[in-house]
């Protein structure tokens, strides 16, 4: 999973809450899930989050050129 500083979707937020409930404490949580205990992951407005976010959109969000290309494709209909 990519390392991010906050939940990017309602789906991810619910996963974080489910893992916290499942393991109960950070001490009882396996190493690969310890990130769910960091407060910054849930320091978001749940109502403002989209339901789901695709991996492709996350990649584009990290790549300004890809965002620009998508914008041009939407306006001009095709690759530029």
Helix coverage percent of residues? 40-55%
How is the main sheet built?
none
Query: Total number of β-strand segments?
Result: 0
Our Rg estimate from Cα atoms comes to 16 Å
| Structural class by sheet pairing and helices | mainly alpha
Counted by DSSP, the helix tally is: 3
- What do the pLDDT scores average to? 75
Order of helices and strands: HHH
How many structural domains are formed by the residues?
2
Account of the 3D structure:
This protein is mostly helical and 80 residues long. The protein has 2 domains: 1-49, no CATH class; 51-80, no CATH class. Helix content is 42%, strand content 0%. The chain contains 3 helices and no strands. The chain has helices at 10-23, 55-61, 64-76. The longest helix has 14 residues, at 10-23. The chain is elongated, with a radius of gyration of 16 Å.
